[in-house]
């Protein structure tokens, strides 16, 4: 039997706090979502001034990164490189940069999704949140 790493509630709070700090340091109004490895929402923070739609997009990006076990940008690149039929893939809706998996010992245990600024900046915020775990 295999032992599985999971995020604790304190881990989710650390991720959200570190991601929030990164966003605030850059004066970016975003929504930040943390999901487990099945894409189920563990935490969501919508900063003051963040667009309402960002609270829907951030969890979708995180969901995509968790289920795909890779950054959501991979899927955006697939579509942008001409494979538009990929848009019909079931259950994956956040195919935009800004979803980053949380990987421990080679296993995806969760993901962070951010929405509200440029996609590369969303990813920067997500990585800053994950870095707070020290993994």
UniProtKB/TrEMBL annotation:
Coiled coil: none
Pfam families: HbpS-like
Superkingdom assignment: Bacteria
InterPro entries assigned: GlcG_carb_metab_protein, PduO/GlcC-like, PduO/GlcC-like_sf
PANTHER family: PROTEIN GLCG, SLR1406 PROTEIN
Protein name: Heme-binding protein
Originating organism: Pigmentiphaga daeguensis
